[in-house]
């Protein structure tokens, strides 16, 4: 009875806050996405501050006695449990943290491991006796003592020489594994035999042992990977793969893991990398750790820059990478003969906005060649008609008249058919260019192999972020990442300032190859005349095997929906609801499984806040469901 009382109270508070109709609409979206059980979980689970990680850990990342017993039983039932070697280089470690690190391996629920430690000629008299004691106490702990200090890459290679397992997990001397870390890895090794690299979510732990700042990652995201090392902790590698690439390279200290992962990518391909969406690694924060700040080890940034540039050279990628204070920036070179870009701008009246848009393109855009195709959708204001007549005097501007009822998809498809460019750009008439090289940036990405649509960083006139990529499932169908964040915000783990793949980008400013536009059939003008056509379009681009990329280095203002207006009358609301229904029916579970977004992050908000509850089943529930399947 108490459970149902809490649900009723929760619903009452939501009704007072949001009103009946919005609440019913949210509830309908949740039921369609997650079923009645999902609605019940959400009603029970909240409230808690969206960023209260300590409470989130308590609810969703803590193992009780029953869960631990289930895990032990599951391990015992594994017919051939994979053995995992934990590789740890050490040098003059803080003794208490080294003890905690080693104990975090010894305390693993999963017993099929070995710990391979390489002491890099520590001068501290306390380190060797401690390591010798551990090796005597546990035969799974193997230690080698280097005669000369060679730094972390050399020490890691020495530790690799001790490995006798098929899999290698990396652990720093002052960090910690979650007690279920190796169990989760072993489960995925069994479940996904094609994989050669696994990586997990991670958080930080301070010197008092308090966990904070969790990084809930996405599936392998090549563009984000070129901006930051998303593998990092916990990284687990197939030993054979490490042998094939020659282990760690001397000279990349500080970014040795990044260089290692890049070379593994070259050898194994993107599909060999598997993300485990659980926090399995706690990264120690102290004054000299890279977990505290990039400035703590500036050489690490330089080593990462070199690793990325050498990777680009080996992969014949015509570009270069430079370090920024927050991430890396990949810049791709344009060909000597640049492709013609056709910029398509639908409009109806709204002279002031349209003129601002055209003027900003003409005055600020440094890219050439480009043409502008304005699709006049029934303008009847004389000043607008006069302006459209006047600007056609420019040799690279055309106006096409289309008096059909407003259908954003149809207008763009028609204009694309008339475009002369190898590249097409979709622009709203309420866009205003900020950065002069916006088109160079977007085209240079659009011509890269495997890239479909490219999106830009859009700002509201007051400078806050309007669009920094689209996250699927947020708000029911899709939401804009980092919406309303300040312009100078780094966003979630620098994703507001880093080139990254997203499942979708907004068509308010979208650039892509015309051939791909036509290959996937253009925008859906039958079912999605106004809303979500860009989301559906981008999802079809993904289906066709391409990836969609967002860049912060193409920046424009977006005076959003200033001419079309809001969904503020029954006819518009009915049309909008039909388009929502279409998206839910067409894409189904895909709307809750965005590969560029974490299942541990919210589908209710656009700020990368925590999901309450996460869409990752608790380990105990996952095991129980697995047992039911086996029994069935």
From TrEMBL:
InterPro entries: Glyco_trans_2-like, Nucleotide-diphossugar_trans. Pfam families: Glycos_transf_2. Signal peptide: none annotated. It comes from Paraburkholderia tropica. GO terms for molecular function: glycosyltransferase activity. PANTHER family: RHAMNOSYLTRANSFERASE WBBL. This is Glycosyltransferase, GT2 family. Residues 85-245, 342-464 form the Glycosyltransferase 2-like domain. Gene3D superfamilies: Spore Coat Polysaccharide Biosynthesis Protein SpsA, Chain A.
